[in-house]
Amino acid sequence: MPLSEFDLIDRFFKNALRDGPEVRCGIGDDAAVVTTPPGMDLVLTMDTLVAGIHFPATTSPEDIGYKALAVNLSDLAAMGAEPRWITMSLTLPQDPASWLEGFMAGFSILAEQYSLSLIGGDLAHGPLSITIQLHGVLPAGTAIYRSGARPGDRIYVSGTLGDAGLALGALDKRWSIDSKYQEEIFNRLNRPTPRIELGLALRGLATSAIDISDGLQADLDHILTASNTGAILNPDQLPLSDALRQLPADQALEIALTSGDDYELCFTLPAAVQEIEVKRLSAITPLHCIGAVFREAGMQWQRSDGSIFTPSGTGFRHF
Amino acid sequence: MPLSEFDLIDRFFKNALRDGPEVRCGIGDDAAVVTTPPGMDLVLTMDTLVAGIHFPATTSPEDIGYKALAVNLSDLAAMGAEPRWITMSLTLPQDPASWLEGFMAGFSILAEQYSLSLIGGDLAHGPLSITIQLHGVLPAGTAIYRSGARPGDRIYVSGTLGDAGLALGALDKRWSIDSKYQEEIFNRLNRPTPRIELGLALRGLATSAIDISDGLQADLDHILTASNTGAILNPDQLPLSDALRQLPADQALEIALTSGDDYELCFTLPAAVQEIEVKRLSAITPLHCIGAVFREAGMQWQRSDGSIFTPSGTGFRHF
User: A5-139: what CATH class?
Assistant: First the structure.
């Protein structure tokens, strides 16, 4: 006899039901009840991952569990918020016990790292799909939006770009990855590091921020459009990993610009921010300045040798 | 060319993006930002509806849109919370424009009635599925839980029971419904009335509450188990509609006890609550007292003539 909804909750979710002083009521009632700390705003993000669309059908349940939480943490990082509570709805095929065990093992890595409480959700039968809502807090009025970039601001990205795209292309047999980079690169796809600590440090400094889920070009465009500005960018300053540099230079650049799933942050700092501040931020996650905000709309790409560069691709299209 | 995610949001969701003074940032950034009013707790409920599981594939998009919000409102009603903000993730087949138009028409009926703001969510391709998280507020510490029922409390239900089950059975050709009741009964299935006003009025009065989504027997059992109590109940006092009474008496009773989807409230009031208070509550939604909380575990069913009644079924099983 298959396990009931209550058996499944008891068996797989109990460890994640870490109550904190702010959780008045977690799973087990009609709704969860939490207390937001006084003077804090609430920050909410919801993401759905569908098998075969957002992850290859071959992805392990552990990796899916890790990544489902990582992508939501990444959204909160881009706002400068501290993550707190999770609600999760899982739509699962028949007899999901062994899948759930793996999924929750991956999920719990990040849930424990950030002391997150799973406070509610839903379980249903159906084609595999995961919806997570993550709730964070920040001091009232300090959220970092996409709309705050101003002409003259410097544009930064964290980490390296295109590694997740490199891994996806290898899965699709479009290229192969040197064996010494395999583990690192597949970790970048399956176990992205949400830049929470960087996001918290950017509060009060960054004029805008976004997480790179659809590709730098598409996501930076969201900042520029929301801020009613443009940008002058140098493609030679994009941070590329040694693994990505194994590909021909133009192809590597294209991947860095257009492939999604990196979950690095792209953000803008006023030119007046001191070098010592940037160094402090870089100590959290390595940062690279890739250009500057410009008053005219659009992105202009100019190489270090002065030549114009024209990117050809676009980012991940949801519809 | 199909509409992009952004086109879809612009075309179908803009009207629902009603900003209030508490919404600092709705759809369009990495996350939504809201301010919870000082002294209020936050109440969160998430429900997923999967096509073919939670609603028949023939259900109209309008009815699905209405019901998806109604079931979440019903959960907040059972907590005594005031509904405020919605996040919604929709997984939709190709070319969802006409479906979305109908869905949002149904959704907007309740969103407008309760001045709810749609503040975030996700759109993805895949098999039709709807996840809604509804966020409500109530004065800190006043939530009504399942666990507060005490021996001697009276057990009440709102409205009538079993009408949604009657409609489902008619869809499955298990029986037919007299034409004069058809519209009313299918409305009970497709357009359930969330008992928000009743839930608000129960705050400070009810010792426990739950919404009846899985059938009275299963849902009342949640209250009794959480409260570590039992109940003595009179099946003859269950409120049955004239439409349900068209079926043989035993069958009608069985449906009222075990069919889900009614979204009425079941709650307990201390015996000391005055008749005049109950009348005030009944003026919001008709109420029936169906029994009393008992110190011994389990449900004992005793008819008005003193004979013992033994229900045979159980509620909706999620897994």
Answer: alpha beta
